[in-house]
Design goal:
Elements (H helix, E strand, L loop, with lengths): L6 E6 L10 H5 L1 H7 L9 E7 L3 E8 L7 E2 L8 E2 L1 E4 L4 E3 L1 H5 L4 E4 L9 H20 L9 E7 L4 H11 L1
Parallel strand pairs: 1-9, 2-9
Antiparallel strand pairs: 2-3, 3-4, 3-5, 6-7, 6-8
Helix pairs in contact: 4-5
Amino acid sequence: MNLFSKILLKEESGNDASDAWLAPARENKAVIAQKNDEMPDEPVSLFGFDLGDGESSVAWTRSDTYAAPLLMEVTGRKSIITALGETEDDILIGDDAYMCDPKRLYVRFKSRYLKKPEQIRPIISKFASKVYSELLKTGKLDDKSRFFVGCPSGWKDAYRERYKKIFL
């Protein structure tokens, strides 16, 4: 399975709409089916991944509920610093990246993506992979899960497509 095998890029509007990312799933399954092959008839887990320049988070809900999404804990926190640390034998994210005395520390890498995509892509990929491995520990993730990944509304389509490929 790819890192995020079923993905939708969702514009970040800047508005405080805590579950706006979920509206297409609730109101029109065709929106997901159009971009993600098909939406299963049975309930599935829906994840919203916000990779921010300073902080990142993941929200979770089920497709069969109207309850507000819950923020998931990643490395023990519901909102983590967008930082990646590499040691001799491990990759750490969030506060752990700062605390591990890393060989290499990467911070604020999303904002540099548009200027240096080839240099930043592997860092984003490693960060997202580590988030994914943390989500596996929750037991809420399975092969039918769907992911929505935020992207700035000001990004051009070409940037969005390039960004999307990081997660596939």
